[in-house]
Every structure is written in C-alpha cells, then in structure tokens.
TrEMBL record:
InterPro entries for this protein: Leu-rich_rpt, Leu-rich_rpt_typical-subtyp, LRR_dom_sf, LRRNT, SLRP
Chief place of localization: secreted
Keywords from the named record: Cell adhesion, Disulfide bond, Extracellular matrix, Glycoprotein, Leucine-rich repeat, Proteoglycan, Repeat, Secreted, Signal, Sulfation
Protein family membership: Belongs to the small leucine-rich proteoglycan (SLRP) family. SLRP class II subfamily.
Domain of life: Eukaryota
Quaternary state and interactors: Binds the alpha(V)beta(3)-integrin.
The protein's name in its UniProt record: Osteomodulin
Species assigned in the record: Zosterops lateralis melanops
Length: 416
C-alpha cells in the first residue's frame, strides 16, 4: 500500500501542476491602445510555489524551460535562425522575436501535444513553411504568425485552431479553401496586409460559424466585406478606403458589440444602419461624415472625431423618448469637426446617462482651429470619477497626432 499511496500522490501533484500551467488570461493586443495582457513570460526573480516534476524535463539547449512551467519552452529573443527540436511534452512554444526564416517539419517530429505556437516577429515566408506542418497538430489552439514576410495564407491548418494571428504580413489573397475545415475558429487577425475586395469573391468567411472577432484593418478594402458569419461580435475595418455601408448591411450581424471603421472615406450613413441590439462601441472618426444617424439603445461610446459635421441633429439620433427603454450612451467624441455651438440640451433627455461630450478643437471653415466655450462637457460625476476624467483629459491633451494614429490603427486581436 505504501508504493500505491506514493504513486497516487505523484499523480495528484502532476494533475495540480498541469492545471496551474494554464492561466486564465486574455491574449490582448500587442499593438497598443487598450490594456494589454500578454502570455506569461518567466521571471527568474519570482518565487513560484509549484510542485516540481517528479522527473527531469527535456529542453532544447537553445531555450529555457522553467521548472515551474514544465510544459512551456521559451526560445524567444535569442537571435535564432532555425527552430530547435521540440520535445514531446511541450504544449506552449514561444519562438517570437528571432531571425527564423523557415518552418520545416523536422523539429516538430516529436511535438504531438502542442497547444500554442508563437512565431511572431520573424522573417518567415510562405514557401519556406513545409506543407501541412501545422495541420498535424490536432491540439493546436493558437498560432501567432504576425510580423513576418508571409505572401500567402498559411494553410492547411488543424481543425482544432481557435485563434490565428496573421497581422503585419504581405498576404494579398485568400484561396477559397484556405479557411475551410476550421469550425472552432473564434478570432482571425488579418490586419496590415495587402488584401483588397477581390478576396471576397470566394466568400472565405461565410462558413466560419463560431467566428466572433475579425480584424481586417490596414488593408486595401473599398467595400464592406460580404457574407460574414452572424456569430461575429467584433469587427475591425479601420484604415481602409471604404466609402459606403449598404442599407441593412448589419441586419445579418445582430451580435455585433464593437465596430471600428475610423480612417475610411465614409460620407453618408443610412439612418438605421447601426440599429443593432448589442452594439456598445462605435468608432467612425477620421471620415467625411456630414450628418449624424440613429443611435441604438445599447450604444455606450461613440467616436465621431475628425469628420465634417456642422450640426448635431439630436432628433435624428433620438426620434422619440421612451422612459422604459433608456438609451445607454455615456460618451461622445466630437473634436475636429465643424461645430460652432454645443449639442442641444434636448440630448440630455434622450441620453440621460451621458457623462462626457468631448468637443476639443473644431475646424471651422475659414478660420484656424477653434474651441467651443465648453471644450469638454461632463455631468453626474462623483468626486473620484471627476478626478479620473480630469486625469484622462490631461493625458488626451498631451497626446500627439502620432499617438492618435497608433491608437486608431489597430483593433485588438484579443479584444473583449
């Protein structure tokens, strides 16, 4: 019984170690803007009280395998030109920020339990990836290939994949079968590539039934992407050349929570375009809008900076008052428009929860940028909230134009 008890204790320690291995973290955007939460990186000065493996763990000599996280192998920031051999037990592999140019199948021969691979910030080209090297990983959940030299979409991929990051590459086309067989995909990041409207001909996203986040910012799109799955909740289209949103376009996307379309060529928006039941955040700054539009009940944050709006017609935004269904709008950003007077006080009956209207400087025709008498309107703030708003306003005034461009240029690949 003594031996059996010892074996049982070892098994319990192993189970506890594996459960501790995976932290419940969001893979937040590495590009700036919202608060970031990156994958855990080992800190040798941190004292981690985790049971040791009951046996030595194999590790590539070029990498580091922290005893506290024996299922992870850290090979990042080491100027590697090739991928080292991956031991069988490794589930999380970090190879970012190296000089890797190829992904051969050889180093992964024994790696049958891989769940996450990070190959971002390397020099990988599509033709240097062995065909099917990723497809064999039946447990792979996350694949990071952003900031490489990929000219094409890296397929085939395993059906287990949930998150795929391909931002900052040179991808210009999406073959019709590239995204087939990925029923578990929830997040796809294709920002900062060379995609144009031709990629939509084969309806590449239509069968991605579980996709909740699609990032297509910083490409060459001129029209709204058709045939998106109704499961979509976060859509990023900023920094393209889109000039029109078809009427009723979003009726097929009722789950949309956040929409970012800043830095496009939008001029007119149909009245009920954004009449969506779940929309919380809407970014339309840096366009050519001249008029406002209907505001749905759910919307909380509206960004309309740097447009050509001369007057805020509140009755268009809020045609009728409904005390039983109060509109949730709390923040509007309106700087760099052509306003000569503040928003009508009727707005505060329509939007009783509104706390901040940021007017900033206005681009009134025929004169230099000017400020309204009240550049920032605030109300209903507790002393703590007021101080926080003051601090945020001071930070906003200190930001440069480059800061704003950096903030608006990318949608979080792990936005929640």
């Amino acid at each position: 019984m003594g031996i059996l008890s010892y074996l049982l204790i070892l098994q319990l320690l192993w189970a506890a170690l594996v459960s501790c291995q995976y932290e419940d973290y969001d893979f937040e955007d590495e590009y700036g803007g919202e608060p970031d939460q990156h994958p855990h990186y080992f800190n040798p000065n941190t004292q981690v009280q985790v049971p040791r493996f009951p046996f030595p763990v194999e590790c590539a000599k070029e990498c580091f395998c922290p005893p506290a996280f024996p299922l992870s192998m850290y090979c990042d920031h080491r100027k590697l030109k090739t991928i080292p051999n991956i031991p069988n037990h490794v589930q999380q592999l970090y190879l970012q920020n190296n000089n890797i140019e190829a992904v051969p199948a050889g180093p992964f021969t024994n790696a049958t339990f891989i769940r996450e691979i990070n190959l971002s910030h390397n020099n990988i080209k599509f033709h240097m990836i062995d065909h099917g090297v990723f497809a064999k990983f039946s447990n792979l959940l996350q694949l990071h290939l952003q900031h490489n030299e990929l000219e094409e979409f890296p397929f085939p991929l395993p059906s287990s994949l949930e998150r795929l990051l391909l931002g900052f590459n040179k991808i210009s086309r999406l073959p019709g079968n590239a995204l087939e067989g990925l029923p578990n995909m929830t997040m796809l990041d294709l920002c900062s590539n060379l995609l144009d409207d031709s990629v939509f001909k084969e309806k590449p996203f239509s069968n991605m039934k579980n996709l909740t986040q699609l990032n297509l910012c910083n490409n060459k799109l001129q029209t709204m992407p058709p045939d998106l799955p109704p499961s979509l909740q976060h859509l990023s289209l900023e920094n393209n050349s889109i000039s029109h949103i078809p009427e009723n376009y979003f009726t097929r996307l009722p789950q949309i929570i956040a929409l970012r379309m800043s830095h496009n060529n939008l001029q007119n928006i149909p009245h009920n375009t954004f009449n969506l039941p779940n929309l919380l955040e809407l970014h339309l700054g840096h366009n050519k809008l001249k008029q406002v539009f209907y505001i749905p009940r759910s919307l909380q944050h509206l960004y309309l900076e740097d447009n050509e709006i001369e007057n805020i017609n509140v009755t268009v935004m809020c045609p009728a008052l409904d005390p039983l269904n109060i509109k949730q709008l709390t923040y509007i950003r309106l700087d760099q428009n052509k306003l000569t007077s503040p928003i009508s006080s009727y707005a505060f009956f329509c939007f009783p929860l509104i706390r901040t209207i940021y007017y900033g400087e206005q681009n009134v025709t025929g004169s230099s940028p000017s400020q309204l008498r009240t550049p920032v309107f605030r109300r209903f703030l507790t002393p703590e909230e007021f101080q926080e708003a003051e601090d945020n306003h001071e930070m906003l005034n200190q930001e440069t134009e480059e800061d704003h461009e950096a903030e608006d240029s990318y949608f979080h690949p792990y936005y929640h």
